[in-house]
Each structure stands twice: as structure tokens, then as C-alpha cells.
Amino acid sequence: MLTKTNLLLARNLTKSMVRFHGHGGIPGENIPFSLQNRYRITGVFTVFTVLGFGSPFLIVRHQLLKK
User: Chief localization class (predicted)?
Assistant: First the structure.
């Protein structure tokens, strides 16, 4: 009986969260940058990707060359 009540409460909570806290169906509405300029998006993506993948290698190189 207790588990049935818990399942019912969890289902109702999930429904209300989706209903009241969901974003609209407009693509790009819930991201922190604008999708209007494709060249800016490409540049920002490239910079963040290069920094994300390259920084560990640069840090290791710096540590190995340091004396």
C-alpha cells in the first residue's frame, strides 16, 4: 500500500514538473547563446572545442618543460 502511494506521488510530481517547468517548443529557446549568426556559432564552437581538447596537452607540455 505504501509503495502504491509513493508511485502515485512520484508520477504526479513528474507530471507537474514537466507541465510547469518545461520550455516551449521553439528550437534554441533554452540555450545560453543566440542561433541567429551561424559564423559566430561556428567560431565559438571551434574555440571551445580546441581549448577543451588542447588544454590538457598544453598543461602536460608545460609541466614537462618546467624545471
Answer: mitochondrion
Range of the domain at 53: 34-66
Task: Give domain status of residue 9, yes or no.
Answer: no
Is residue 54 in a domain?
yes
Q: How far apart are CA 23 and CA 25, in angstroms?
A: 7
Residue 58 belongs to some domain of the structure = yes
Instruction: Write a three-state SS string for the chain.
Output: CHHHHHHHHHHHHHHHHHHHHCCCCCCCCCCCCCCCCHHHHHHHHHHHHHHHHHHHHHHHHHHHHCC
Q: pTM for the whole thing? A: 0.49
